[in-house]
Amino acid sequence: MMEYIGATGSPIEFDAVPIQPGIDFHFILGFAIDADSSGTPLNGEFKPYWADTLSPESISSLKAQHGPSVKVMASLSGWSLGGKVLRWTRPNNQSLWISNAASSLRSLIATYHLDGVDVDYENFGRGKGDIESFAFCIGELIAQLKRENSISVASIAPFHTTVAPYAALFRRYGGLVDYVNYQFYTDKVRNPVAYLAAFRLRAGQFGKEKLLPSYEVSGRGIQGDGFFDALAARILNENLVSLY
Ligand SMILES: *[C@@H]1O[C@H](CO)[C@@H](O)[C@H](O)[C@H]1NC(C)=O
C-alpha cells in the first residue's frame, strides 16, 4: 500500500490515514523539488515542499507507533510549484546534477527519517537528450542511494503521456525499482473491465510484479466499489490462468 500525502498544502496529519497492521504501508511525501520557492531549478538541490505538519517529529512518532512495516518516502518533483510547471531537461553537467541530488537527498533522508524515494517528474523537455538524461541521471541517483544504503525502497510514477521516459529508465535500471505507481486515474478508466484492460496494457510495459493498481480518492477515473471489483477480477483472472 502506498499513499501520496502532503501535496495540496492542506495541513494533513498521518493519523488521518488508517493503517492495517501486517501490510507494508508506504507514505509518499509530495514533494521534494529541485527548485527554489519560485520554481527556478537548482541543479539537483532538492528541497522539501510537503505540508509542514508532516514534520521530522511526526514521522518519528508514526514509526515508533507502527514499527518497520510503515515506511516514509519522498516523491521527486510532481507537476508544478506555485503555479509554475516543473519540467525535466538535460542538466549541463550530468555528474554534477547526480552528485548535488544525492547529497541534498541524503540530508532530507537523515532529517525526515526517510526510507526511500519515488520519482514523479511529469513534464519533459523536447530537446535532444532530455529523455536519455532522465533515465541516466535518475537511474544513477537511485543506484547510488541504494548502494550506500541511504534508501531501501524506490518507486516510479508514470502516466500515459510519460510512459516513454519512464520505460527508458525502467529498461536500464528496472532492477533497482521496487514499485511502479502507474497513475491509472489519468487514463480516465471508469469501469472494472476497462480498468483491467488498462492494467494489462501497463503490465506489458512495466511488468506485472511491480505494478500497483492506483486510485484517486474522490478524483479522476474509477471510483468506489468499481475499483475493488476490478481488483477482484484480476485475482479471478490469475486464478483461472493458473488452473490451466
Ligand atoms: C562536471 O561535474 C563533475 C562533478 O562535480 C566535475 O568533476 C567535472 O569537472 C564537471 N565537468 C565539466 C565539463 O565541467
From TrEMBL:
Q: Does the keyword Nucleotide-binding apply?
A: no
Do the record's keywords include Hydrolase? yes
Q: One Pfam family for this entry, by name?
A: Glyco_hydro_18
Membrane-spanning residues: none
Q: Which PROSITE patterns match?
A: GH18_1 (PS01095), GH18_2 (PS51910)
GH18 domain location is 1-244
| GO molecular function, a single term | hydrolase activity, hydrolyzing O-glycosyl compounds
Keywords tagged on the record: Glycosidase, Hydrolase
Q: Where is the signal peptide?
A: none
- One GO term of the biological process aspect: carbohydrate metabolic process
PANTHER family with a match to the protein in the record: CHITINASE 2-LIKE, GH18 DOMAIN-CONTAINING PROTEIN
Say which family it is in.
Answer: Belongs to the glycosyl hydrolase 18 family.
Name under which the protein is recorded: GH18 domain-containing protein
